[in-house]
Automatic annotation (TrEMBL):
Keywords: Methyltransferase, RNA-binding, S-adenosyl-L-methionine, Transferase. One of its GO terms (cellular component) is nucleolus. This is SAM-dependent MTase RsmB/NOP-type domain-containing protein. The keyword Transferase applies. The lineage of its organism: Eukaryota, Fungi, Dikarya, Basidiomycota, Agaricomycotina. GO terms for biological process: rRNA base methylation. The chain holds residues 125 to 441 of 487 of the full protein. GO terms for molecular function: RNA binding; RNA methyltransferase activity. The active site is at C236 (nucleophile).
Amino acid sequence: QTEDVRAGQIPRYVRVNTNCWSVEDAIAYFSRQGFTLREDGDELDSKDFSRDLHIPTLLLFSSSVSFQSDKAYQSGKIILQDKASCFPAVVLAPPSGANTHVIDATAAPGNKTTQLSALMGNAGKLFAFERDKNRFKTLQTMVSKAACTNVETANQDFLLADPRDNKYKSVTHISLLDPSCSGSGIVNRLDYLLGAEDEADDVKEERLQKLSAFQLSMIRHAMKFPAVTKIVYSTCSIHAQENEQVVRAALASEEAQSRGFVLAPRSQVIPTWERRGLEDELDDPSCVIRCSPGEDRTNGFFVSCFVVAETLSKTVV
Ligand code: SAM
């Protein structure tokens, strides 16, 4: 059986679900299980673990460790989530508190929905959309297992949600966290191994064009919600067509122009992460994040953040 060697270089990432546990309690639990907390997560052996440098609720273990039968995993206290996939919710940074209303437009299986719920302090309201019926069931199971009490799930196409519906009038933050994309950044993905990378150039181009048109329509729809001031768009793709080029088209759209959306500066988008957008694709590629499979010990990923320009001057320090 073919193995993608890059998979072995990605640590086992464990996100502590702060809806039911603290990071300190998690560290104490794993220490009792015989793991040793190391300062440096670069070369972990099977009995080591460490804290992540960028995501405060993330722990790293050796890729050889499995948590499927661990009590903490089965009870929803930990969630197995790749580091790169933890970035978008942290960038969206919804305030915690009863008055915060957020939309997660593409929610299943619910890794980032549960992460957003925890960042909101399990308070306020998080509307989570998922259009696929089976994946919606998975989302419901995950939301309940992670003890999220501020999430309202809807088995609905986000593009059909009416931005003028009174229900959404206070939504200020929207996450478009990997709407359907080519998945070309995912290491060990079956269709990668089976040769999706080998498809003919014109077929690949047509597929990417369809995906990017859909991705752009999702961002433009999100920009129509009357109170929205911050939108995070991410993909697990490595292609500029689905990443920087979609962002560029979104910035030029009627919706962005009329509402004054611009890209949030690097200072608000995990500034300490070194790998940024592709040169020549954006005026300021440092505004967006890229993760490279094989080079960053994560899957391939892209994160961008749109903000209403006038709110920016109030939040920049
Ligand atoms: N954000 C998820 C997480 O972190 O667990 C992963 C999202 S997954 C890559 C993409 C999901 O978006 C799929 O389940 C797909 O069915 C859903 N989706 C795609 N387009 C949608 C739409 N227009 N409305 C609602 N859900 C959509």
